[in-house]
Amino acid sequence: MEPKPVSFSQTTITELMIPSYANFGGKIHGGILLSLMDKVAYACAAKHAGTYVVTVAVENVEFLQPVEVGQLVSLLASVNYVGKSSLIVGIRVVAESIKTGEQVHTNTSYFTMVAKDEVTNQPTTVPPLLLETRDEVRRFLEAMKRKELRKIHRTELDNAKTSLEVAESLNLLMNERAVVACEL
Q: Which DSSP letter does residue 102 get?
């Protein structure tokens, strides 16, 4: 299977934020932005894989700045990492004022996608990623590190769940905004 360069599948979606996208506070609803991020992640990953892909994980969704009605939102996606059947797509979201041209970085997220065989619906191999710039190499290495840290975090969280004794851990709630109203 021939490697494909990052540039082959880089994808940008730009959409005008309209009033029906707003939440009760008058800002663009986070769910609208998540939906757009999922769309651009799909387009980018499917283009690289050359087949259907599904979203299996979303990492680091932190809204740094609000998005306003009337702004243009651009979602810039590129494949940062490929495994055997998985791809990690990095997405940078930028909101732009149409009137002033001022651009604001609103968030960066990482979507893990898995390529599926369209007949068997089983995971299928994706082409290797051709890294042509120092930034592409850095992003690939960062994605490898994030994968490693996610695995460690998942293991630690699973261990904490199995070893946590509720009755003996009640003292942890002393300075929290929680009221226990049940028999333990």
A: -
Task: Give the model confidence (pLDDT) of 137-155 as tens digits.
Answer: 999 999 999 999 989 988 8
Q: Is 145 helix (H, G, I), strand (E, B) or coil?
A: helix
Does any domain span residue 182? no
3 state SS of 4? strand
CATH number for the domain that contains residue 140: 3.10.129.10
Residue 151: CB partners within 8 Å, gap ≥ 6? none
How far, CA to CA in Å, does 21 sit from each of 11, 17, 97?
Answer: 22, 7, 16
- Report the number of distinct structural domains present in the chain: 1
Q: Which tokens sit at 77? A: 């996606």
Whether 161 shows a pLDDT value over 80: the answer reads no
Determine, yes or no, domain membership for 176: no
Boundaries of domain holding 74: 4-165
Cα–Cα distance for residue pair 174/169, rounded to 1 Å: 10
Inside any domain, residue 43:
yes
Answer whether residue 133 is part of any domain: yes
pTM recorded for the entire structure: 0.88
Question: Which amino acid is present at 170?
Answer: L
